[in-house]
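Quick check before the chapter quiz. The format below is the same one you will see on the exam, so make sure you can read both the input and the output lines.
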Amino acid sequence: MSERTYVDIEAELTDQPINFDEDICLAENVVYIKPQTLIDVPMHYCPGCGHSTAHKILMEVVDEMGIQEEIIGVAPVGCSVFAYHYMNVDMQEAAHGRACAVATGIKRIMPEKYVFTYQGDGDLAAIGTAETVHAANRGENILVVFINNGIYGMTSGQMAPTTLPGMVTTTSPYGRDVKTQGYPLYISNLLANLPGVAYVSRHSVHTPNNVRKAKKSIAKALEYQKQGLGFCMVEIVTNCPSNWKMTPKQSNQFVEEKMIPFYPLGDIKVPEGK
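Here is the expected output.
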Protein backbone atom coordinates (compact mmCIF):
# COMPACT_ATOMS: atom_id res chain seq x y z
CA MET A 1 0.00 0.00 0.00
CA SER A 2 1.45 3.37 -0.99
CA GLU A 3 1.98 6.02 1.67
CA ARG A 4 -0.70 8.70 1.81
CA THR A 5 0.35 12.23 1.04
CA TYR A 6 -0.62 15.45 2.74
CA VAL A 7 -2.92 16.21 -0.19
CA ASP A 8 -4.67 12.82 0.23
CA ILE A 9 -5.28 13.45 3.93
CA GLU A 10 -6.60 16.95 3.31
CA ALA A 11 -8.97 15.65 0.63
CA GLU A 12 -10.30 12.98 3.00
CA LEU A 13 -10.91 15.49 5.77
CA THR A 14 -12.74 17.95 3.55
CA ASP A 15 -14.39 15.48 1.14
CA GLN A 16 -13.26 17.83 -1.57
CA PRO A 17 -10.47 17.38 -4.09
CA ILE A 18 -7.82 20.02 -3.58
CA ASN A 19 -5.88 21.58 -6.40
CA PHE A 20 -3.04 23.28 -4.56
CA ASP A 21 -1.65 24.86 -7.71
CA GLU A 22 -4.86 26.87 -8.06
CA ASP A 23 -6.28 27.14 -4.54
CA ILE A 24 -3.11 28.34 -2.85
CA CYS A 25 -3.04 31.34 -5.19
CA LEU A 26 -6.54 32.55 -4.37
CA ALA A 27 -6.57 35.99 -2.76
CA GLU A 28 -8.70 34.80 0.17
CA ASN A 29 -6.09 32.16 1.01
CA VAL A 30 -3.14 34.56 1.17
CA VAL A 31 -1.79 34.78 4.72
CA TYR A 32 1.18 37.08 4.15
CA ILE A 33 2.86 38.87 1.30
CA LYS A 34 5.91 41.11 1.40
CA PRO A 35 5.28 44.80 0.81
CA GLN A 36 5.80 45.68 -2.84
CA THR A 37 7.90 48.65 -1.79
CA LEU A 38 10.23 46.47 0.31
CA ILE A 39 12.93 45.29 -2.08
CA ASP A 40 13.27 41.49 -1.98
CA VAL A 41 16.97 41.24 -1.10
CA PRO A 42 18.78 39.91 2.00
CA MET A 43 19.21 42.61 4.64
CA HIS A 44 22.53 43.26 6.34
CA TYR A 45 21.01 43.53 9.82
CA CYS A 46 22.02 41.09 12.55
CA PRO A 47 19.67 38.16 13.29
CA GLY A 48 16.82 39.30 15.51
CA CYS A 49 17.41 43.03 14.95
CA GLY A 50 14.28 45.16 15.00
CA HIS A 51 15.35 47.33 12.06
CA SER A 52 14.06 44.82 9.50
CA THR A 53 10.62 44.75 11.13
CA ALA A 54 10.52 48.54 11.28
CA HIS A 55 11.42 48.70 7.57
CA LYS A 56 8.67 46.22 6.77
CA ILE A 57 5.84 48.00 8.56
CA LEU A 58 6.89 51.37 7.17
CA MET A 59 6.75 50.02 3.62
CA GLU A 60 3.47 48.22 4.34
CA VAL A 61 1.97 51.59 5.23
CA VAL A 62 3.32 53.08 2.00
CA ASP A 63 1.73 50.23 0.02
CA GLU A 64 -1.60 50.48 1.80
CA MET A 65 -1.78 54.25 1.37
CA GLY A 66 -0.76 53.93 -2.28
CA ILE A 67 1.91 56.62 -2.00
CA GLN A 68 5.00 54.91 -3.41
CA GLU A 69 5.41 57.64 -6.03
CA GLU A 70 4.54 60.40 -3.56
CA ILE A 71 6.94 59.76 -0.67
CA ILE A 72 10.60 60.60 -0.14
CA GLY A 73 12.74 59.13 2.61
CA VAL A 74 15.98 60.35 4.17
CA ALA A 75 18.45 57.70 5.34
CA PRO A 76 20.81 58.34 8.28
CA VAL A 77 24.31 57.36 9.24
CA GLY A 78 24.21 54.30 11.47
CA CYS A 79 23.08 50.70 11.19
CA SER A 80 20.27 51.75 8.86
CA VAL A 81 22.54 53.72 6.54
CA PHE A 82 21.61 51.28 3.75
CA ALA A 83 17.86 51.78 4.14
CA TYR A 84 17.81 52.97 0.53
CA HIS A 85 18.84 49.45 -0.56
CA TYR A 86 15.64 48.04 0.93
CA MET A 87 12.93 50.68 0.49
CA ASN A 88 11.74 51.02 -3.09
CA VAL A 89 10.84 54.68 -2.80
CA ASP A 90 12.78 57.84 -3.56
CA MET A 91 15.54 58.12 -0.95
CA GLN A 92 18.21 60.66 -0.06
CA GLU A 93 21.27 60.07 2.11
CA ALA A 94 22.10 62.67 4.75
CA ALA A 95 25.31 63.51 6.56
CA HIS A 96 25.53 62.17 10.10
CA GLY A 97 22.76 63.71 12.21
CA ARG A 98 21.47 65.99 9.47
CA ALA A 99 18.46 63.97 8.30
CA CYS A 100 15.88 66.42 9.67
CA ALA A 101 17.65 69.33 7.98
CA VAL A 102 17.72 67.48 4.66
CA ALA A 103 14.07 66.46 5.05
CA THR A 104 13.18 70.09 5.77
CA GLY A 105 14.71 71.19 2.48
CA ILE A 106 12.95 68.45 0.53
CA LYS A 107 9.57 69.20 2.06
CA ARG A 108 9.87 72.94 1.52
CA ILE A 109 10.61 72.65 -2.19
CA MET A 110 8.09 69.82 -2.69
CA PRO A 111 5.38 70.41 -0.08
CA GLU A 112 2.98 68.06 -1.87
CA LYS A 113 5.23 65.06 -1.15
CA TYR A 114 5.22 62.89 1.95
CA VAL A 115 8.68 63.15 3.56
CA PHE A 116 10.14 60.97 6.30
CA THR A 117 13.45 60.38 8.01
CA TYR A 118 14.55 57.05 9.46
CA GLN A 119 17.09 57.58 12.26
CA GLY A 120 18.72 55.78 15.16
CA ASP A 121 19.38 57.20 18.61
CA GLY A 122 22.95 58.23 17.83
CA ASP A 123 22.05 59.98 14.59
CA LEU A 124 18.95 61.69 15.99
CA ALA A 125 19.63 62.25 19.68
CA ALA A 126 23.41 62.78 19.78
CA ILE A 127 25.16 64.29 16.77
CA GLY A 128 21.81 65.33 15.29
CA THR A 129 20.22 66.87 18.38
CA ALA A 130 20.31 70.44 17.06
CA GLU A 131 18.81 69.55 13.67
CA THR A 132 16.10 67.43 15.30
CA VAL A 133 15.10 69.94 17.96
CA HIS A 134 14.99 72.94 15.64
CA ALA A 135 13.07 71.11 12.89
CA ALA A 136 10.54 70.10 15.53
CA ASN A 137 10.36 73.58 17.02
CA ARG A 138 9.76 75.11 13.59
CA GLY A 139 6.93 72.65 13.05
CA GLU A 140 8.42 71.21 9.88
CA ASN A 141 5.73 69.04 8.29
CA ILE A 142 7.75 65.81 8.20
CA LEU A 143 7.66 62.37 9.82
CA VAL A 144 10.61 61.12 11.85
CA VAL A 145 10.82 57.38 12.48
CA PHE A 146 13.15 57.14 15.47
CA ILE A 147 14.75 53.79 16.32
CA ASN A 148 15.77 53.58 19.98
CA ASN A 149 17.84 50.52 20.86
CA GLY A 150 19.77 52.17 23.66
CA ILE A 151 23.20 51.72 22.11
CA TYR A 152 25.43 52.62 19.16
CA GLY A 153 25.05 49.60 16.89
CA MET A 154 27.19 50.36 13.84
CA THR A 155 30.29 51.31 15.83
CA SER A 156 30.26 48.21 18.05
CA GLY A 157 28.22 49.09 21.09
CA GLN A 158 29.17 52.41 22.70
CA MET A 159 26.89 54.22 25.14
CA ALA A 160 24.13 56.23 23.47
CA PRO A 161 22.06 59.12 24.83
CA THR A 162 19.30 56.53 25.35
CA THR A 163 21.41 53.90 27.17
CA LEU A 164 19.70 52.86 30.41
CA PRO A 165 21.25 53.58 33.83
CA GLY A 166 23.51 50.69 34.79
CA MET A 167 23.55 49.30 31.25
CA VAL A 168 26.93 47.92 30.18
CA THR A 169 28.42 49.17 26.92
CA THR A 170 31.96 49.38 25.56
CA THR A 171 32.23 52.95 26.90
CA SER A 172 30.42 52.20 30.16
CA PRO A 173 31.96 48.80 31.03
CA TYR A 174 30.76 49.04 34.63
CA GLY A 175 27.30 50.22 33.64
CA ARG A 176 26.08 53.73 32.87
CA ASP A 177 26.70 55.91 35.91
CA VAL A 178 24.28 58.83 35.88
CA LYS A 179 26.54 60.79 38.23
CA THR A 180 29.32 60.97 35.68
CA GLN A 181 27.65 60.07 32.38
CA GLY A 182 24.30 61.74 32.78
CA TYR A 183 20.76 60.46 32.49
CA PRO A 184 19.18 58.90 29.41
CA LEU A 185 17.60 61.48 27.13
CA TYR A 186 13.83 61.28 26.76
CA ILE A 187 14.04 62.90 23.36
CA SER A 188 10.42 62.12 22.40
CA ASN A 189 9.08 63.68 25.59
CA LEU A 190 11.35 66.68 25.13
CA LEU A 191 10.09 67.29 21.59
CA ALA A 192 6.47 66.80 22.61
CA ASN A 193 6.68 70.02 24.64
CA LEU A 194 7.48 72.12 21.58
CA PRO A 195 4.60 74.05 19.97
CA GLY A 196 5.54 73.01 16.42
CA VAL A 197 5.16 69.32 17.20
CA ALA A 198 1.82 67.76 16.25
CA TYR A 199 2.22 64.08 17.11
CA VAL A 200 4.66 61.97 19.11
CA SER A 201 4.11 58.31 19.90
CA ARG A 202 6.33 55.52 21.23
CA HIS A 203 6.01 51.86 20.29
CA SER A 204 8.00 48.64 20.02
CA VAL A 205 8.27 45.76 17.55
CA HIS A 206 9.16 42.92 19.92
CA THR A 207 5.73 41.23 19.82
CA PRO A 208 3.12 40.89 17.05
CA ASN A 209 0.62 43.09 18.88
CA ASN A 210 3.18 45.84 19.33
CA VAL A 211 4.17 45.58 15.67
CA ARG A 212 0.56 46.25 14.69
CA LYS A 213 0.35 49.26 17.01
CA ALA A 214 3.60 50.71 15.64
CA LYS A 215 2.36 50.32 12.08
CA LYS A 216 -0.92 52.03 12.91
CA SER A 217 0.99 54.92 14.48
CA ILE A 218 3.14 55.40 11.36
CA ALA A 219 0.02 55.49 9.19
CA LYS A 220 -1.56 58.03 11.53
CA ALA A 221 1.54 60.24 11.41
CA LEU A 222 1.59 60.25 7.60
CA GLU A 223 -2.09 61.17 7.57
CA TYR A 224 -1.35 64.09 9.91
CA GLN A 225 1.41 65.16 7.53
CA LYS A 226 -1.10 65.09 4.67
CA GLN A 227 -3.29 67.42 6.73
CA GLY A 228 -0.33 69.77 7.25
CA LEU A 229 -0.41 69.55 11.04
CA GLY A 230 3.34 69.81 11.60
CA PHE A 231 6.22 67.73 12.93
CA CYS A 232 5.43 64.09 13.76
CA MET A 233 7.65 61.46 15.34
CA VAL A 234 7.14 57.76 15.93
CA GLU A 235 9.72 56.29 18.30
CA ILE A 236 10.27 52.54 18.08
CA VAL A 237 11.95 50.95 21.10
CA THR A 238 13.82 47.96 19.78
CA ASN A 239 16.69 45.58 20.43
CA CYS A 240 20.35 45.14 19.50
CA PRO A 241 21.15 41.46 20.16
CA SER A 242 24.76 41.65 18.94
CA ASN A 243 25.87 44.64 21.01
CA TRP A 244 23.74 43.72 23.99
CA LYS A 245 25.54 40.34 23.91
CA MET A 246 22.23 38.48 23.93
CA THR A 247 20.29 36.04 21.80
CA PRO A 248 17.34 37.53 19.90
CA LYS A 249 14.96 35.96 22.43
CA GLN A 250 16.91 37.35 25.39
CA SER A 251 17.06 40.79 23.78
CA ASN A 252 13.29 40.88 23.25
CA GLN A 253 12.86 39.92 26.88
CA PHE A 254 15.19 42.80 27.83
CA VAL A 255 13.02 45.16 25.79
CA GLU A 256 9.94 43.95 27.66
CA GLU A 257 11.43 43.93 31.15
CA LYS A 258 13.92 46.83 31.08
CA MET A 259 13.49 49.15 28.10
CA ILE A 260 9.72 49.56 28.10
CA PRO A 261 9.41 50.33 31.84
CA PHE A 262 11.93 53.11 31.27
CA TYR A 263 10.44 54.22 27.94
CA PRO A 264 6.67 53.65 28.35
CA LEU A 265 4.76 52.90 25.16
CA GLY A 266 1.84 54.90 23.81
CA ASP A 267 0.92 58.36 22.57
CA ILE A 268 2.90 61.19 24.12
CA LYS A 269 1.28 64.02 22.18
CA VAL A 270 -1.64 64.00 19.76
CA PRO A 271 -3.13 66.83 17.71
CA GLU A 272 -5.91 68.71 19.42
CA GLY A 273 -9.26 67.14 18.67
CA LYS A 274 -7.75 63.93 17.25
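If your answer matched, good. The chain has one domain: 43-269.
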